[in-house]
């Protein structure tokens, strides 16, 4: 089982007045363990329309593994590993944006609608150390995912 070099993973999305809140929550739940708590905050848009912010923080290692396992389903996971220099900031946070509509359908794709922020463990706390730790974690999860699909192909 891969190690998890993250302090926490935050996931957030917005539900606009034109969207069904249950469907948007379903998209967010694509990445979460079963029955995971989601916080709701209601806000108002520029034109007075209602916006619901759905967010959660995953902090336990097994729960973070679940999120990372879902992210390893990205078709572009190896491309993502190559882009880590651009996706990790000076505060050791890794940022991803995922396609909300694809997530609602159970798919995992980079796109718009869902924001992921993962605080990378790095000692010393430098961007370079965080990028390296995030790269190792992604490669480990990608390799585990590849092994699992190879094992199921042989059945």
From TrEMBL:
Coiled coil: none annotated. It holds the Pfam family RNA_binding. Transmembrane segments: none annotated. InterPro entries: PAB1135-like (IPR002739), Ribosomal_uL5_dom_sf (IPR022803). NCBIfam families: PRK14555.1-1. This is RNA-binding protein. It comes from Halorientalis brevis.
